[in-house]
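[job 0412] stage=complex_fold ligand=nickel (II) ion status=START
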Amino acid sequence: MFTDTHCHLYKEYYNDLDIILKQAESNNVNRYIVAGCNQKSNEEVIKLINNYSNIYGTLGIHPEDVENYNEKDLYFIEKNLSNKKIIAIGEIGLDYYYTKENKEEQIKLFERQLAIAEKYNKPVVIHSREATQDTIDTLKKYKVNGVIHSFSGSLEVAKIYIKMGFLIGVNGVITFKNSKVKEVIKELGLENIILETDSPYLTPHPYRGTQNSPKYILNIAEFIANLYSVDLEKLAKITNDNISRIFDI
Ligand code: NI
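[job 0412] stage=complex_fold status=DONE, emitting structure tokens
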């Protein structure tokens, strides 16, 4: 059985979650880590982990929400870390894709959440887009490990993250026709990767253009199993072992 290590199973995207989870289960996916991005979704993560025994959560303020958070939101994250099903801080990080103008604020928010992770000894789920060097420099100031979610960088960068104690999160992008990420992932070794869908975004080939869903972990798994010439059972075991190495799950 596989785990979807990064998805956003919020009500605004999935009005009947039970059906979505049932479909996933028939595709051998039976555990989920739902990532929060802001106060609203963080509150939803808490509801989901209380309602479903196989859903775990992470809480964080996403860099795109840097203009819309306040002190209370950070306190909410800290306070809920005592919940055993909140297994990491995330997704947090840096995103310079839309603008670099709020770079200082993004780094400040990122650092404050890394400090919380360090204080409570929690792993972090990292979102980094067009901000590789600043992400690495900022992470190096803290004693944290975790996952680089939706990794799309070079082999050299992947190796730096792995050396720093991070796993590489692989999603449907690897199945895209022009994706260069498969050459990188092939070189990393299965012991360094975990599978995610990032639902409802980044639907794998050949379902692009429709809404993503955790059931498509199977398609990503088949692609990687092929790439490494292993069977699905072995891939499930290795990636689940990787998850247990980083997360208390
Ligand atoms: Ni995400």
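The chain has a mean pLDDT of 97.
[job 0412] exit 0
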